[in-house]
Structure formats: structure tokens, C-alpha cells
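Lecture 7 notes. Example A: sequence first, then its C-alpha cells.
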Amino acid sequence: MKTVFEKATRDELINRIQSLRESDSAQWGKMNVYQMVKHCSRWDEWILGKSNLVYKQEFLGFLFEKMVLRNLMKDDRPLGKNSPSGSAFIIKEKEGNFELEKKIWIQRIAEYEHFSNPDFIHDFFGKMTTEEIGKFAYKHADHHLRQFNAHVLRSYAS
């Protein structure tokens, strides 16, 4: 199973992020491509320990975490469409500097090479192993890249 802790996987994600265009349309969901890129860079900042968000598990997650996490991690299946997002990761502004946000997200992906955040607690899944974090971070990025049809490397002549 792919993990952001492998260089080849990070390189793949970075190439897919670089292929995104401001004109890309979502295959599902409510976010536009700018909102998605900013959402993902903010989410990765949280995982990496670079945000001010509090690491605390929600009660509902406490009840169902092990069953849901085990199901998500059992194979390479992508995350389901329209998966819920924590309120801290909902991006309200519809436009901004798209190219800058891509660069920030790419930098966050690259930072997984030196991941060290032993205090991380997922708001639903609770305490996760480093292996689970690596796999889930890949699945999260992959999910959103697929959302904007960047599930395969695209090449553009222009």
C-alpha cells in the first residue's frame, strides 16, 4: 500500500499536483480546485504539526475509530466520494493565488520525508501509528487529486 513516507509516492503526488489547472472541474463534491488545493495543504499542515489546531478526538470517532480505520487501511481502495471533512478544513474563499497554493501543498508533501509528529491525534481516528498516518495521508491526497481528474499523470503540450 502506498505511503507518503516513500519518495516515489511523494514524487507521484507532486507530479499530479503540478498537473492541476485552475480551470479543472470537480468530478464530485462542492469544492472548486483552488479550495481543494488549499484544503489539502491546510490538512497536511495539521498532520505535520505545523498548525495551531488542537489534537483531540471527537466522541463519535472514539466509538467507531477502530472499525472504520481498519476498513480504510485494509487495501489500496481510494477513499469514497463525498467523504466528510472537519470544519477546520473547509475553505470558504472561492478564489485566491492558485499557483501559490499549489507550491505550498507541494512543499507540505515534500516535508513528509522528515515526518516527526508523535503528538498527532486524528479528530476521528484518534492516535494513529506512523504507518497508518503515511497511508492515510496518501489516500487523502489521492482522493482529492482524483476528485479533479488528476488520478493519472496528465501531460500538457502548453
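Example B, a different protein, same format:
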Amino acid sequence: MAGWEQALADLVNARGAALKRYAYLLCGNDSDAEDLVQDALVRAFTRPRHDKVANSEQYVRKAVVNLYLDRVRRRDVWRRVMPFALAPDRVEDGSRAADARHDLRAALLELTPQQRACVVLYYHVDLPIPEIAAQLGCGAGTVKRHLHDGRRRLAGLLHDDIGEDDRAVR
């Protein structure tokens, strides 16, 4: 048996489990760890070496790390490209969104004008309560009351549960 073949056999017999544990720590998957070690061994020992490999384990460990990083890079590239390569199984026609917009518009029309103005300025325009009060010419407490009443009314009209968002209005 040639020197490099003996080095490969000795390395696999003596340190094969340690190399697999090393690869497992990198990738976190048992089967991927086995693949990494096997590919690293193939990469390290494919061409017969005329000189004896002094630190074959370190050479294989370096190959394991390089292979792992290459796979991560390839996977990241694929994740960026995949949405363009694969067509979705089912295309949404937007009818649910249109129905929701229609329902919301109808519910907003059920509010009093003051409630509707406060809800739109607060949730759609994203104005703080003092600015809404200044625009409407009323106090901050009045704006809070209109927001509270409008939210409660919308929840009843849209069959929505009143939850944490109701306490967000201060």
C-alpha cells in the first residue's frame, strides 16, 4: 500500500469519529457531517501524493471547514435566487384583500365623523394624539375618547376581538 493510502486508512480508523464530530459542530446535522468528512477525505486524498502527508488530520479539518463554508455560500445564493426560479403553486387573486378593504371602508362609514377623523389620522396618517387634537381643535382627552370609541365600534362591525391594541391608545 502506498504511503498516502496508508495515511488515509490510519486517519479514518483512528480519527474518523473525531472528524465527524468536528463536522457536526459546524453544520449541526449528522448526515451533513458525514458528507462533509467524506468529501474532505476525497478532496485531500484523490491525487496520490509522492511525499508523506505529515499532518493529514489538520489538512482534512481545513478541507471540512472550506467545504462547509462553500456549501453555506451556495445555499445563501440559492435562497436569493430561488424566489425568481420557482413559480408559486397558487396565485392569490387579491379578492380577499379587496373584500377586507371594502369591509373596512363600510365600517369606517358607520363611525361618527369625529371618530372616523381620529381613527384615520391616528392609524393611517400615523399622527400623534397632540397633533390630531391640534388639527381637530379639541383636547387630547377628546381624541383619546374618540379613538377608543371608534376602535370598539370597528371591532364590533368587523367581528374582531379587542385585544392589546386597544390599550396602545394613551
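Note on Example B: The radius of gyration is 33 Å. The longest helix spans residues 56-85.
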